[in-house]
Automatic annotation (TrEMBL), chain A:
Ranges of biased composition (kind: Low complexity): 76-86
All copies of domain BHLH, residue ranges: 334-384
Main location: nucleus
Cellular compartments annotated: Nucleus
PANTHER family for the chain: STEROL REGULATORY ELEMENT-BINDING PROTEIN, TRANSCRIPTION FACTOR BHLH62-RELATED
Protein name: BHLH domain-containing protein
From TrEMBL, chain B:
CC per GO annotation: nucleus
Keywords: Nucleus, Transcription, Transcription regulation
Protein name: IBH1-like N-terminal domain-containing protein
Main subcellular location of this protein, as a coarse class: nucleus
Length: 521, 168
């Protein structure tokens, strides 16, 4: 599964390469053929109408066959032949360029087959006769699975799969690698179909990934055509994880509301993974959606009060270098304005960071609401700043004593004493609390024989102080800071153990000053 | 979002850097003052110096990576320059004086309380707290706040341990 995002990345990347035609020729001879073939039905289907029932049945059968083939590894040429021929002859024949492309496809398909394995193609003899219909199917499968450039890689990766039908192996590879790939493929068809109708499958894709280009438009149209032609079969197959391929399908919104913001393609693939996880439950989304992927951003699907939202907005980081644009998916019932979408993305970023801050600030996880959380954060920052001020004051007053101490401290490894402090001390008590605790500590120290003065720490020797600390640790902890306070005596103890303790009394002046400070605070 | 670095590794390095710089600064400050009983004015001067030293060492330990640390460094530098110029010109103006004046002016102005939608009041308050927060977008501001909180916490920890050690 880990390979999948990378491969899909490549495939998507290749697929949406602006130099699409060139790359396709080099990498995947099928793609151009597929696009041409798919585009041919577009002429018939641009209206968004459905296929004829007969055609849909054929398509359904074909796709079912394909799925069964991929699953079982069987090939039924004859059936495919018949269905394919009947299926695709009409669309292929309608546009004038279809003939050219069909022959082109044949050649490419053969070339592609050779590219794959070249040896076992039980399909192969039938292919030329089919007028590249199975090629169309395979291309459609590849198209949906984005198996364009990486087919070689796919094959290389799934070596054992090569033993099975190579020509059919193209979709099979993807399917075997990803259990849900088949569903994805069909889902892709269905998703594409859905765009054109506001029926049960309602979700529309404004667009998917790459930088806009003429190829994109072409692909979009072609995909639209293919989807429309295959909508029923996909429904027949009844795959529930339908919209998994949606984010990767590029589809113009019929009503033209969708906005294309080209996005880092790698993001899409991981998006698909997340989508797979999240979309299994819901099918329908009649509104336009724009998938947003941003490099380096992990997205969470956020449902802001909408009923059936599961789509995620952002995509996790991908290994490929980020592209310029970002794809955004609009949620159901929301505007597809580029401004509102960008705003929504920004809002999600902000809420994500707020959550992180909530974890950082102690006592913030329970509260809800932006204002309250922000209040807590502000209070915490203010208390930290006040603590710094107070500690610096303390350092300043005791500075006369500190010179030799500082020398000793500098010579020691400061990190050692610093590292002894528990890392988890984020729950810093407020200044008053600290003072009260130290006050208690000081009080505890009073009965010690050496007459320790009433300051925070004035130990004469380590042992009494440690004893005092140990004694005091279990008691007199402020209830609100139970988790954090025990760490404070630990600090003292560790520091005392690691550094040479200098005996001495706190000078009266500073002592009184400390006392005053404590009282005030 | 950019993955936040693990607090452990970053905190330790920031902590050690800050601790070293701060201790050096403290030594310098300590050596300046006389060990005999300092007057309250000296104490307040020293307090300010220590605080500046704490901020400066923290900001330099973080480095110019963060907006708030950059802002703080610029502020400290400009303040020190202003102080130098003031002392050269014989002006006894303190670096924080103008800030107080500004604050007083602000207090006289009546503030109309708007409905606090989206927590804008808090956001503005946060902007004032975090150095350099005025010019940031909200998401960057929250990022900087998180890092600032982390560094402040480290600062407090180190300073407290120093105080505890020095009081010992």
């Amino acid at each position: 599964m880990e390979n999948q995002p990378g491969e899909l990345n490549f495939s998507a990347d290749c697929f949406f390469n602006p130099n699409w035609d060139n790359s396709i020729d080099q990498n995947d001879p099928f793609e151009s053929g597929l696009s041409s073939i798919v585009s041919s039905p577009t002429a018939s289907y641009t209206g968004g109408g459905f296929l004829g029932s007969g055609d849909s049945l054929m398509m359904r059968e074909l796709v079912g066959r394909l799925g069964s083939i991929c699953n079982s590894g069987e090939v039924s040429h004859s059936n495919n032949n018949s269905t394919n021929t009947s299926c695709y002859s009409t669309p292929l024949s309608s546009p004038p360029k279809s003939n050219h492309f069909s022959s082109n496809m044949e050649n490419k398909f053969r070339g592609g087959n050779l590219q794959f394995s070249g040896n076992r193609l039980p399909y192969h003899p039938s292919l030329p006769t089919l007028n590249a219909d199975p090629g169309f199917v395979e291309r459609a499968a590849k198209y949906s699975c984005f198996g364009s450039r990486n087919l070689g890689e796919f094959i290389g990766q799934s070596g054992p799969n090569q033993s099975e039908l190579p020509c059919k192996s193209v979709p099979k590879l993807e399917f075997s690698r990803v259990p849900s790939c088949q569903s994805m493929k069909v889902a892709g068809f269905r998703a594409v179909n859905q765009e054109n109708k506001s029926g049960p499958f309602g979700r529309k894709l404004s667009k998917i990934s790459r930088p806009p280009s003429p190829e994109n438009a072409k692909l979009r149209n072609s995909r639209e055509g293919s989807s429309v032609s295959e909508q029923n079969p996909s429904g027949q197959i009844g795959l529930k994880a339908q919209n998994e391929a949606n984010p990767r399908k590029r589809k113009p919104i019929p009503n033209g509301k969708g906005k294309e913001i080209p996005c880092p393609s790698p993001a899409k693939d991981e998006e698909v993974d997340e989508v797979n996880a999240k979309r299994s439950k819901s099918d329908e989304d009649p509104n336009n959606e724009i998938v947003k992927g941003s490099s380096g951003k992990k997205g969470n699907a956020k449902t802001t009060g909408e009923d059936d939202q599961e789509q995620k907005k952002e995509v996790s980081k991908a290994p490929e270098p980020p592209k310029d644009y970002i794809h955004v998916r609009a949620r159901r019932g929301q505007a597809t304005d580029s401004h509102s979408i960008a705003e929504r993305v920004r809002r999600e970023k902000i809420s994500e960071r707020m959550k992180f801050l909530q974890d950082l600030v102690p006592g913030c996880s329970k509260v809800t609401g932006k204002a309250v959380v922000l209040d807590e954060i502000i209070n915490y920052v203010q208390s930290l700043q006040r603590q710094v001020e107070f500690l610096s004051m303390k350092l300043a007053t005791g500075n006369s004593r500190m010179d030799f101490n500082l020398e000793a401290l500098l010579s020691h490894d400061i990190s050692q004493s610093g590292g002894s402090m528990p890392q988890t001390i984020y729950k810093l008590d407020s200044t008053a609390q600290a003072l009260s605790y130290s006050f208690h500590e000081a009080q505890k120290m009073q009965p010690l024989p050496n007459g320790i003065s009433n300051s925070t720490l004035a130990p004469v020797s380590i042992d009494p102080l440690n004893a005092a600390l140990l004694r005091s640790r279990s008691i007199q902890l402020p209830s609100t800071f139970n988790s954090s306070m025990p760490q404070v005596p630990m600090i003292w103890e560790d520091d005392l153990q690691t550094v040479a303790v200098q005996t001495g009394f706190v000078p009266n002046q500073t002592q009184s000053f400390h006392g005053q400070m404590k009282l005030q605070l | 979002m950019n993955p936040h670095p693990s607090s452990c590794s970053n905190g330790r390095s920031i902590r050690t850097r800050f601790a070293r710089r701060f201790l050096r600064a403290l030594k310098k400050i300590g050596s300046k003052g006389s060990s005999s009983r300092p007057s309250p004015r000296d104490i307040s001067w020293r307090c300010r110096r220590v605080k500046i030293a704490a901020d400066a060492s923290m900001a330099s330990a973080v480095g110019p990576r963060r907006v708030w640390s950059r802002t703080m460094l610029n502020m400290l530098r400009s303040r020190s320059h202003a102080c130098l110029h003031a002392s050269r010109l014989g002006n006894s103006r303190r670096p924080g004086a103008d800030r107080h004046a500004v604050g007083k002016r602000k207090r006289l102005v009546l503030k109309r309380k708007l409905p606090n939608r989206l927590g804008l009041n808090q956001v503005n308050q946060l902007r004032r707290l975090v150095p350099g927060g005025e010019a940031m977008d909200l998401d960057i501001l929250l990022d900087e706040t998180a890092h600032y909180i982390k560094c402040l916490a480290t600062q407090v920890k180190v300073m407290r341990s120093i105080v505890d050690y020095c009081s010992a």
